[in-house]
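A reminder from the course coordinator: this example appears on the midterm review sheet, so study it carefully.

Given structure:
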């Protein structure tokens, strides 16, 4: 059953200033809503963002500084067109010049344009990705532009590091065995060894440099050893990245006092198959939808103005949260 609901735009009054004994008219500022999904690599950020888009009319903005480039879809673990489920994605594989850096300023400019475009269609922007420096540059900009225009809700998919490291290692092995990782990496080998800019910064490219340099000049045993070493380095550096991402989330939460809702997905990674899917729904997907529902529809502050938005079918628990 399709249920019509409304997204509340929070109106915050500007302080009344006395003038000749009378108060000025209060001007109401409407703020659009933005959802941010964060977490370490491999935790399930993309999955959650797409799950949310099945509950709320949404479009997704990628905030991963490597996934913005076109190419290396396997190595960078871009969500496939099939898995996107028809949800519009922005800044995902759109940068064609793979040799230059896509800076935080570039992200702020392009993501701001995307947010305006999405909200103009009365859709919910969901920003998702592991580059927390991009998120910080956008939300805590010097001119206070973002916070003056938008209310945002942060969701953090968290997984215990030992389990996440094990999952990342399995994912790298799968990329190698079944998905053609080496074939995809080969064109990005640089004889000059410059992996400091653009897409060549991606984990996987510099790690395979030594292998590509020597594979044509060594015996099979040495070649296999070089291959195993490169794969091991990818796993290690991916785990280091996850730890770095986690540290930045803690800083945003504890030092910069961002309100970030933590979803513990650890039990999901202890299960397999349908049990894992059910655990994801119970522990991550449904609770996140309830958090977003309250963020969008709850009128605790002063949400007297609404804009039409048709909510997609959702579970009774999510709908209850939206109207509590």
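Designed residues:
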């Amino acid at each position: 059953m399709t249920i019509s609901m409304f997204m509340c735009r929070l109106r915050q009054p500007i302080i009344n200033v006395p003038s000749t004994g009378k108060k000025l008219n209060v001007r109401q500022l409407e703020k659009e809503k933005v959802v941010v999904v964060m977490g370490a690599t491999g935790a399930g950020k993309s999955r959650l963002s797409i799950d949310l888009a099945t509950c709320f009319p949404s479009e997704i903005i990628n905030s991963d500084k490597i996934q913005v480039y076109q190419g290396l879809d396997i190595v960078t673990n871009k969500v496939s067109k099939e898995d996107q489920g028809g949800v519009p994605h922005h800044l995902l594989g759109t940068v064609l010049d793979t040799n230059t850096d896509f800076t935080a300023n570039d992200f702020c400019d392009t993501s701001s344009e995307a947010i305006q475009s999405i909200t103009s269609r009365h859709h919910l922007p969901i920003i998702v990705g592991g580059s927390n420096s991009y998120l910080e540059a956008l939300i805590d900009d010097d001119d206070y532009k973002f916070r003056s225009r938008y209310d945002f809700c942060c969701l953090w998919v968290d997984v215990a590091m030992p389990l996440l490291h094990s999952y990342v290692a399995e994912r790298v092995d799968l990329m190698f065995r079944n998905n053609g990782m080496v074939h995809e990496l080969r064109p990005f080998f640089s004889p000059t060894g410059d992996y400091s800019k653009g897409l060549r910064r991606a984990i996987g490219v510099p790690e395979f440099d030594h292998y590509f340099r020597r594979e044509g000049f060594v015996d099979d045993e040495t070649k296999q050893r070089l291959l195993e070493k490169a794969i091991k380095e990818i796993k290690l550096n991916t785990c280091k990245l996850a730890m770095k991402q986690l540290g930045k989330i803690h800083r945003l939460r504890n030092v910069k006092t961002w309100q970030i809702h933590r979803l513990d997905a650890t039990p999901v990674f202890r299960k397999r198959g349908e049990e894992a899917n059910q655990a994801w729904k119970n522990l991550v997907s449904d609770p996140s939808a309830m958090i977003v529902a309250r963020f969008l529809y709850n009128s605790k502050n002063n949400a007297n103005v609404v804009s039409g938005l048709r909510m997609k079918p959702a579970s009774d628990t999510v709908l209850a949260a939206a109207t509590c």
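The radius of gyration is 22 Å. Residues 1-28, 299-315, 319-324 have pLDDT under 50 and may be disordered.
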